[in-house]
Amino acid sequence: MSTVPEARPARAVSLVTHQARYDLRAFRRNNRARIFTLAVPVVLLLILVSLFRSGTVQAGGVTVKIAAYYVPHIAAMAIVGAGLINLLITLVAKRESGSLKRRRATPVPSWVLIAGDATTSVVSSVLIVVVLIAIGSLGFGLHVTGAAVGLAALVTVIGAAVFCCLAYALSGLVANAESAGPMAQLSTLPVYFISGIYIPDNVLPHWLLDVANVLPVRPLAVALQAAFVPATNGGQRFAAVPLLVVVAWGVAGLIVAVRTFSWVPRRA
Amino acid sequence: MRSEGTLDSTMTPEPARPAVRLDDAVAAAHPGAMPDGGPSAPGEPAVITVRGLRMSYGHYEAVRGIDLDVARGEILAFLGPNGAGKTTTVEILEGFRNRTSGEVQVLGTDPAQAGPDWRARVGVVLQESAPEAWLTVRECLSMYAGYYPRPLPVGRALELVGLTDKADARCDRLSGGQLRRLDMALALIGDPELIFLDEPTTGFDPAARHTAWEVIAGLRELGKTIFLTTHYMDEAEALADKIMIIAAGKIVAEGTPATIGGRATAATTVSFTLPDGVTRGDLPGLLASATAGRGGTVEISDDQLVRVLHELTTWALLHGYPLSDLTAHRPTLEEIYLRLTDEPTSPKGQP
């Protein structure tokens, strides 16, 4: 590959901004993406928090209020939805329709397209996490500090980028647009259940939690939980080890993606 | 007016682009060097040069050593049945597929190693493509324009393909023909020198096809080089300067629409109905070679059309036969194509 003026940082930033602008616009007009990414987590949070109302649960060995438990856990689910599920479905649809191949025929570098997708995931993830925190704080007495929100935002950005990588990795395994949705659900729903997203940690057997701890969803939820209630993570607001597990999954996803990603339709 | 291609001084040095910018934005720097709309003079490096190209999928050899040259400003029609190696060849030239062996140069670069600056000079209209969901026609073109160093204004691209009145329609609400025109606009938005058109009018109604041909002919006027694949012989005949026919992985014929496959010198078939009471045995001289044709007619195939007609009409005048259904039929491009690609042993389907 020869180097061209586009490779200069200023041009790179403007290209990514250019791409992200159109990707976000498409996301905003896509009902399926909006409902699954933004509406479903809000509805789930409202249901779960209302179900247990003023109760408490055990998390990380301490007792936390229902809102302080479900806001970070549903936030983790929302990040997976925006990063992995939405992007996986969009990506496979674009590949199978020939849209990716057509972009391949232009001078736009592939990383610009990936950065555009990642930006869409990050922006929509941050948006939904902020909404979830606001609902928890205004409606259900979630204790919110600047440090908690700042750290939650950082974890959200990292998580969204990681699940974006995992979407690229999984897209290589999905043969057609019809199976992208079921594949996304299949790869996430069981993980949500064993990760304490819907069912509180203390109900789950230890061995299941051990499995969940090495998968990417629960560490993300633990890191978000720690941002609000440091006591659940031994007093540490910044959950370094769980975040490291999350990032490791991102790196692994990237390695798989580089090997299996396809620009051209699978049929043919 | 036409103008000389732009050469942005900030770009990496590369040969000046003799093709005219589609937006006519820059005044001619060297009026003498303006393209004349036709193929370039001999001696100028070809836009596409292929020597001994081969491509195998496992044990199956899809392309079996083809040579090919396309001069600047030329429209080449690349014809061949499905599975003949056509798509494989085009995808190698477009840089989408690696080859097994052979030399390939497109715009002075090997497409297998081409980078973004090469891609900026090549436009591709893919055979299958779907709309960019959720964006309007104008937004889609603006997005693609952002990928190129010197894009056309979006309005100019819309005008070239006749989509101006659909600029604010969502891409996924366009008709099939409008979508193909959007594909064409997307291929032109970067103001390319070379354009690959893969079956650009498949599924068009006759009026839409003629509109598309006008667009393509307009690109020729601007000095663009076009590599066209098609299944329509009339399309090749209407547009191409040169035709190449590929069958079973090999080039089986090459020439202009008028001369390909020996068409210019091929035997012409004269056909007429024998008058009552006349048998083939009664025909004199050259006409004695007549064979039985369709529906009680007789046919004479001969490359000496004038002599056949002279003998026939002299004989008919002498006997007072009207021969009212007399026709002389030169082989059509389609007949030449079918004869050349009729390979009963040709391997079926490519991966």
Describe, in plain words, how this protein is organized in 3D.
Chain A has 268 residues and is mostly helical. Chain A has one domain (5-260). Chain A is built from ten helices and two strands, in the order H-H-E-E-H-H-H-H-H-H-H-H. Chain A has a two-stranded antiparallel sheet with strand order 1-2. In chain A, a hairpin with a 2-residue loop joins strand 1 and strand 2 (62-65). With 351 residues, chain B is α/β, with parallel strands linked by helices. Chain B has three domains: 1-34, no CATH class; 48-257, P-loop containing nucleotide triphosphate hydrolases (Rossmann fold, 3-Layer(aba) Sandwich); 267-329, no CATH class. In chain B, the strands form three sheets. Chain B has a six-stranded mixed sheet, sandwiched between helices. Chain B has a four-stranded antiparallel sheet with strand order 11-12-10-13, with helices on one face. In chain B, a hairpin with a 4-residue loop joins strand 11 and strand 12. The longest helix of chain B is centred in the middle third of the chain and has 16 residues, at 206-221. Chain B is elongated, with a radius of gyration of 25 Å. Mean pLDDT of chain B is 83; it is low at 1-17, 25-38 and 345-351. Classes of the chains: A mainly alpha (268), B alpha/beta (351).
How do the helices and strands line up, and which of them pair or pack?
The complex is a heterodimer of chains A (268) and B (351).
Chain A: H1 9-29, H2 31-52, E1 56-59, E2 62-65, H3 66-96, H4 99-104, H5 110-140, H6 146-171, H7 177-194, H8 206-214, H9 217-228, H10 240-260
Helix pairs in contact in A: 1-5, 2-3, 2-5, 3-5, 3-6, 3-7, 3-9, 5-6, 6-9, 6-10, 9-10
Chain B: E1 48-57, E2 60-70, E3 75-79, H1 86-93, E4 101-106, H2 116-119, E5 122-125, H3 137-145, H4 154-161, H5 176-188, E6 194-198, H6 206-221, E7 225-229, H7 233-239, E8 242-247, E9 250-255, E10 268-273, E11 291-292, E12 297-302, H8 305-319, E13 327-329, H9 333-341
Parallel strand pairs in B: 3-7, 3-8, 5-6, 6-7
Antiparallel strand pairs in B: 1-2, 1-4, 8-9, 10-12, 10-13, 11-12
